[in-house]
Amino acid sequence: MQRYFAIVSDNKVLLSNDDQHHLLNVLRAKIGEKIEVVSEGSLFLAEITKISPLVISVVNKLEDNSELKAKVTLYYCLSKGDKNDFVVQKATELGASKIVLVSSKRCVVKYDNKDVDKKIARFNKIAKEAAEQCHRIIVPEIIGPVTVDQIGKIATEEVRFVAYEEEAKKSPSFSLEGNETSVAVFIGPEGGIDENEVKKLNEFSFKNVSLGNRILRTETAAVYALSVIANYLEK
User: Fold this and answer.
1) Is 31 helix (H, G, I), strand (E, B) or coil?
2) Strand pairing of 182-187 and 71-77?
3) Is 16 helix (H, G, I), strand (E, B) or coil?
4) Do 29 and 19 contact (CB within 8 A), yes or no?
5) DSSP string spanning 129-166?
């Protein structure tokens, strides 16, 4: 069943113009068809009662258990091409509740101030569509870009990891207890994370961890790390 993030008021669903277009012109929905609607963290079953103008009425409230047991934050260094789009999409599907974009020393990509709002708007749209597709009840918050130095002021997670390839020489992977309330993982840029930035993150209580004995592409590392975290939290 199709799911949308929308506003529910007086038992009526108010979709955005884009979502109305998708429902009526892409899905070609008819009177009597039902959809799922998420509003302010609550899930509802709703029914189309009129097409022109579009009227969608709430049928009843539903229970939902799609979210992870802990809040998961991905700190992701900016990448080239459409890798950022890919990571935002997959991080959403894997349960991240926040995505912090990072401009680190070895990042090839740098955003101009005039580009930031446009980029964040694009990422928010990707996250919303991914959250609807995988039936989540929240859309991850996306912020940044921030520097590594700024992370110390915003990191509040109970457990914090930084994926560091040098750690592969000491341990094969990382683990969780499964009862954490919030978890963060930092994924470095395509050229690898700078050693001084690792030390800075260590000062911010980020623990060095390995993602295995192979050197992964940055987008693969993000997906791998979030998959491991989700696995522990969903046991």
Assistant:
1) coil
2) parallel
3) coil
4) no
5) HHHHHTT-SSPPEEEEEE-HHHHHHH---SEEEEE-GG
pLDDT of residue 26: 93
Best CA proximity match to 13, nearest among 30, 29, 36, 33: 36
SS3 at position 39? strand
Segment-wise mean pLDDT, segments of 10 residues, the chain, 235 residues: 94 95 93 95 95 94 91 96 95 98 87 84 96 96 94 96 80 78 95 91 94 89 95 87
């998959």: which residue's tokens?
Answer: 227
| Residue where the block lists tokens 């959250």 | 131
pTM summary value? 0.91
Distance CA 54, CA 13 (A): 10
pLDDT of residue 110: 80
CA distance 97 to 141: 6
Kind and range of the H or E element at 197? helix 195-203
135 CB contacts (<8 Å, ≥6 apart)? 3, 36, 64, 66
Between helices 83-93 and 218-233, what is the axis angle to 10°?
10
Question: Which residues lie closer than 8 Å to 57 by C-beta, 6 or more apart?
Answer: 11, 12, 13, 46, 47, 49
Tokens of 145: 């870009």
Q: How many residues does the chain have?
A: 235
pLDDT at 96: 98
